[in-house]
Amino acid sequence: MSEFRWAARVYWEDTDGGGIVYYANYLRFLERARTEWLRAKGFSQAELARDPGILFTVVSVQVNYRRPARLDDELVITCEPHAEGRASLRFAQRILRGAELLADADVRVACLAAATLRPTRLPESVLAEVD
Questions:
Q1: What CATH number did the domain enclosing 28 receive?
Q2: Nearest to 35 by CA among 113, 107, 114, 128
Q3: Could you give the CA distance from residue 28 to residue 33 in angstroms, rounded to a whole number?
Q4: Which of 40, 55, 93, 110 is 20 to 30 A from 123, comparing alpha carbons?
Q5: What is residue 101's three-state secondary structure?
Q6: How many CA atoms lie within 13 A of 121 on its CB side?
Q7: Distance (Å, rounded) from C-alpha 92 to C-alpha 78?
């Protein structure tokens, strides 16, 4: 599987009083990149919730903050999904400014039945896009 890349810019709303990205906002960049990966593969989260009736939820995240991102920085957020069992995905993600690594993360996402919020199998169509 090739690495998916999504471009973003740092805005005021992402930063603290010193113009540095607030640590929790890195999670937003990571989430958006995973959503854009799905979209690039032809999936809409709203449509997946309707048919086949699934949702994705983060069940664990480990982030290593390496260097600060700052106001107006152009970033690239990557994600590399890997199947982990039949009901979850693990994403290796990075946040880069040019070639400089700012943060890396390991994110585990579970597939849930929208009606019950209980774990359910990933659709074959999604599994075909990982690993």
A1: 3.10.129.10
A2: 107
A3: 9
A4: 93
A5: strand
A6: 5
A7: 8
φ/ψ of 26, rounded to 5, equals -60, -35
> Which residue's entry shows tokens 């600060």?
68
Strand-strand pairing, 74-83 and 4-9: antiparallel
Instruction: Report CA-CA distances (Å) from 119 to 53, 82, 111, 113.
Output: 12, 17, 6, 6
Identity at 128, one-letter amino acid code? A
DSSP state of 15: B
End-to-end CA distance of the chain: 5
- What per-residue confidence (pLDDT) applies to 12? 95
Per the structure block, which two tokens stand in for 95? 């946040």
Catalytic residue ranges: 16
Parts of the chain with a pLDDT under 50? none
Could you tell me the residue range of the domain that residue 45 belongs to?
4-127
Cβ-based neighbour number of residue 87 at 10 Å: 17
Total domains in the chain come to 1
Would you state the structure tokens that stand for residue 3, as one six-digit string?
A: 């690495």
